[in-house]
């Protein structure tokens, strides 16, 4: 059931009343074949030193949410808990072993999630574990050996101090705080775990929640928590997905999630890569190659620019430009569809 890209483009233009471009394409492709291929990403969840019983319950709850989501998504997952049996290796030693065992190189993402407490006193920021703590310098060295895409979720106090030393290409970092000076217990980890593991944070309606969408949702939930409690906000989460070690906070994006800073190269703008990373992806995502994802991001950047320039364009000029972009997007998904196994 072949369909020329141009025909796809015209069909999609007739469906523009639908909420989201990707979701429209996804529905069309869903009708074409029941066969899908899934990637095999992995997830390591590290539940740090609880400090006291109240924090321990919160850490355990977040870790459980991640474990359940990983199971649902078919991930290979590991929990490096603060609880240890008698004679078992220390938590830091167990984490080292898990990271050393990560399959590499691979195009399948590794999710590394931390919940607990951190501190930025001294020269090296640290994450609190049972026994010896984990320094940002050691973690950076351990991760440098892993040749695959990564999403790092740093859901703990002072985590902002970890962003710069951990930043690298093909790596996305979400930190609960913007610096090492925000030392209080954070609520971000709970809200982010809930957002990434369900569909309530699916802001664009494409049937999946991206890292960016989960981050936006969790940040808004944190602000709502402090507002409802009548308390001063003591945590400000940041996102870093450029690899340059330059994190951005919620204020860098408008209410639609569009970056407000310099847009000379939209493909490298903050948030772009995080929009294309999913913990539980819709089936079509697993079919796209890295080249197709880059092409899609470029076309979506062109679409955003076109929409911002619509007021100064004629209706026919706008429609032709819009059709050209949708034809390009349709071509991306048509290429993926052709790789589906035959019945």
What structural keywords apply?
single chain, 343 residues, three-stranded antiparallel beta sheet, 10 strands, disordered N terminus
What does this structure look like?
The structure is a single chain. The chain is of the alpha/beta class. It folds into 2 domains: 5-36 and 283-338, no CATH class; 42-275, Rossmann fold (3-Layer(aba) Sandwich), CATH 3.40.50. Helix content is 42%, strand content 12%. The protein contains 11 helices and 10 strands. Helix 7 (188-196) crosses helix 8.
* Beta content: 5-15%
Structural class: alpha/beta
CATH architecture of the largest domain: 3-Layer(aba) Sandwich
Rg, nearest Å: 21 Å
Main sheet? 7 strands, mixed
Shape: globular
Series of H and E elements: HHEHEHEEEEHEHEHHEEHHH
Distance between the termini: 12 Å
- Weakly predicted, low-confidence segments: 1-19, 25-39
- Helical stretch tally: 11
Estimate the mean pLDDT confidence. 84
Question: Any idea of the CATH topology of the largest domain?
Answer: Rossmann fold
Share of helix, binned? 40-55%
Strand and helix map with partners:
Blueprint: H1 5-13, H2 21-32, E1 42-47, H3 53-73, E2 76-80, H4 91-100, E3 110-116, E4 118-119, E5 126-127, E6 134-135, H5 136-144, E7 150-156, H6 160-166, E8 171-175, H7 188-196, H8 211-229, E9 238-240, E10 248-249, H9 272-275, H10 290-308, H11 315-338
Parallel strand pairs: 1-2, 1-3, 3-7, 7-8
Antiparallel strand pairs: 4-5, 5-6, 8-9, 9-10
Helix pairs in contact: 1-11, 2-11, 3-7, 5-6, 7-8, 10-11
């Amino acid at each position: 059931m072949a369909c020329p890209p141009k025909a796809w483009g015209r069909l999609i233009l007739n469906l523009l009343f639908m909420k989201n471009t990707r979701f429209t394409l996804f529905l069309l492709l869903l009708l074409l074949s029941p066969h899908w291929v899934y990637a095999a990403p992995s997830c390591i969840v590290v539940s740090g030193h609880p400090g006291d019983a109240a924090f321990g319950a919160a850490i355990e709850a977040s870790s459980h949410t991640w474990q359940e989501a990983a199971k649902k998504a078919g991930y290979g997952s590991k929990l490096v808990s603060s609880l240890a049996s008698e004679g078992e290796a220390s938590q830091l030693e167990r984490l080292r072993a898990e990271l050393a065992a990560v399959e590499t190189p691979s195009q399948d993402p590794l999710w590394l999630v931390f919940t607990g407490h951190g501190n930025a006193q001294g020269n090296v920021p640290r994450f609190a574990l049972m026994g010896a703590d984990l320094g940002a310098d050691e973690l950076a060295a351990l991760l440098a050996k892993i040749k695959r895409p990564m999403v790092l979720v740093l859901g703990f106090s002072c985590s902002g101090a970890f962003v710069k030393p951990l930043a690298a290409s093909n790596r996305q970092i979400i930190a609960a705080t913007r610096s090492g000076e925000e030392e209080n217990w954070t609520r971000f980890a709970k809200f982010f775990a809930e957002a990434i593991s369900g569909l309530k944070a699916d802001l664009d309606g494409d049937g999946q929640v991206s890292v960016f969408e989960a981050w936006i949702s969790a940040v808004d939930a944190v602000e709502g928590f402090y507002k409802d409690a009548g308390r001063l906000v003591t945590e400000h989460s940041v996102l870093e997905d450029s690899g340059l070690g330059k994190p951005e906070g919620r204020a860098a994006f408008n209410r639609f999630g569009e970056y407000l800073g310099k847009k000379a190269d939209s493909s490298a703008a903050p948030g772009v890569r995080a929009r294309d990373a999913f913990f539980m992806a819709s089936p079509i995502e697993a079919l796209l190659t890295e080249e197709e994802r880059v092409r899609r991001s470029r076309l979506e950047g062109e679409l955003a620019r076109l929409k911002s320039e619509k007021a100064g364009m004629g209706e026919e000029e706008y429609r032709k430009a819009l059709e050209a972009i949708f034809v390009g997007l349709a071509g991306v998904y048509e290429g993926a569809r052709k790789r589906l196994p035959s019945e």
